[in-house]
Amino acid sequence: MLDLKLIRNNPDQVRAGLNKRGAAALVDELLRLDEERRDNLARVEALKNKRNVVSKEVGRLKSAKVDATNLINEMKEVNEEIRQLDGVVRDLEERINEILYTLPNLPQEDVPVGADEQANVEVRRWGEPRTFSFTLKPHWELGESLNMFDFEQGAKISGARFTVLKGLGARLERALVNFMLDLHVNEHGYTEIFPPFLVSGACMVGTGQLPKFAEDMFKASPGDYYLIPTAEVPVTNLHREEILTAERLPIKYVAYSACFRAEAGSAGRDTRGLIRQHQFNKVELVKLTKPEDSAREHERLVQDAEKVLQLLNLPYRVVLLSSGDMGFAASKCYDLEVWLPSSGQYREISSCSNFGEFQARRANIRFRREPDAKPEFVHTLNGSGLAIGRTVAAIVENYQQADGSIVVPEILVPYMGGVKTIK
RNA sequence: GGAGAGAUGGCUGAGUGGUUGAAGGCGCCCGCCUCGAAAGCGGGUAGGGGUUUACGCCCCUCGCGAGUUCGAAUCUCGCUCUCUCCGCCA
User: Fold this and answer.
1) Active-site positions of A?
2) Three-state SS annotation for A22-59
3) Which of A38, A45, A69, A171 is paired with A301 by a 20 to 30 Å CA distance?
4) A60-79 residues near strand B (Cβ < 7 Å)
5) Is A281 exposed, middle or buried (0-12, 13-18, 19+ CB in 10 A)?
6) Beta strand segments in A92-239, E
7) Strand B within 7 A of A121 CB
8) Rounded mean pLDDT, A234-256
9) CA atom of A242 to C1′ atom of B39, Å
10) What is the spatial distance between Cα A189 and Cα A315, in angstroms, rounded to a whole number?
């Protein structure tokens, strides 16, 4: 959520930022509502002040056994006026918040301006895509023939975009989860979290999925629960409504979770294979930092995610997303794209975002620099480290052999119970 | 699911319908003392909003939401959460 005071004091800056994201317009409406609200607020507060003063006077008079009927009657009228104005102010606040909750974050200065992924900027590449001396197969063909995954059974028990992992396919999934968690905990200093997969609506508002993207979420019933689309939601919200001490920052969490996405609006895209599923596994990195540290911590977070791909020896590139391609809450975002030989392209496998204070303002996560200092909003960041299903797809495709078997990346062999080849 | 207890500031813990945004304690900050520290002593210490060049002033907030009242932390109703016992359960 954007700071209403920033909009009030620097409307041109906000307009320019929103324009880069193709989300302009509503600033003027917001300014008008804000002015109207403050106008009515001043009036109702003056009346409340009067009521408070007179009420104390009534108390004094009563204890002195003096009649106060006139004052009491006068206050009854004032109360009616207060009730009315309070309603006006509340309505205005609701409309202001409705708008504020649906405005995206402002892009940072160094984010390339553009409408979509065409304007993304490749930052660096790592690794050399293998050259194959035989005909490549996509991961879904290889995996099915090796009995690693079963798409038909997934469809039978759940429906489209669900997959059953079996045997060494299931084992590979589990190996990757453990490998990534160990790496980030032991080498990168993150604290492991195993969060609930169902959260309250308040959490979804806090990280920005609600109210705008309700149609992308699975809702659980009975109860008012949402299935998490990413561990970002429960983990970032761990500190909702808290004021942290400065020494605790930066906070670095790593969490495995299943992720659930409705994929509304992506019908027909990536219908085959593991790339786009309603349910997938992911190891997520989350950081809470001081504002001045978030840019540096963002770069480090990207490197921590890259390390996974490097250790798996999977070629990838880092892309800086354009203003139009970024997620709603992000102020700056790098995607990690892994090489998928069968389609001959780089595909997103991690998205690493700095949200500035956008989420912290929604979730009310603050910190104090000094024991007596005013609370300030923290900055929140997160990134996949990595999406497990897409990593499996990348391994299967990049490590495929002429005979249709898969060589297990060396670093994973211990996690695979010594299995070096899936055949 | 049944029965009961509770929710107050960073923490703990008082609170009779009327200068109680809230005693006391702990913690923290500033000062005194000290070579330095501890102890001791004195003072300070919630958040949000509005307004003001500023000092300041005002409004709201005692889990959340309604209500009663001139006035609610305190009374009434609803909700949420936590704890204890019983039942069920991986």
Assistant:
1) 261, 276, 348, 351, 390
2) CCCCCHHHHHHHHHHHHHHHHHHHHHHHHHHHHHHHHH
3) A171
4) 62-63, 71-72, 75-76, 79
5) buried
6) 121-126, 149-150, 164-165, 191-193, 198-200, 219-220, 225-227
7) no
8) 91
9) 34
10) 25
3-state SS string for A285-333: EEEEECHHHHHHHHHHHHHHHHHHHHHCCCCEEEEECCCCCCCCCCCEE
Euclidean distance between CA atoms A368 and A371, whole angstroms:
7
d(CA A248, CA A251): 6
pLDDT at A56: 87
Rounded-to-integer distance, Cα A184 and Cα A316, Å: 19
Q: What is the pTM of this model?
A: 0.93
Measured CA A145 to C1' B77 distance, in angstroms: 65
Q: The tokens 């024991």 sit on which residue?
A: A371
Distance A246 CA to B31 C1' (A): 25
Measure Cα distances from A63 to A56, A59, A68, A82, A268 in Å: 11, 6, 11, 27, 78
CA distance A183 to A50: 63
Tens of pLDDT, residue by residue over A66-81, are 888 888 888 888 999 9
Structure tokens at A323: 């203003």
Question: How far is the C-alpha of A27 from the C-alpha of A290, rounded, in Å?
Answer: 28
Quote the tokens at residue A21. 């994201």
Q: How far apart are the first and last CA of chain A?
A: 51
ipTM (interface predicted TM):
0.88
Dist CA A414 CA A159 (whole Å)? 34
Query: Which tens digits make up the pLDDT trace of A180-208?
Result: 999 999 999 999 999 999 998 889 999 99
Q: Residue count of chain A, please give it.
A: 423
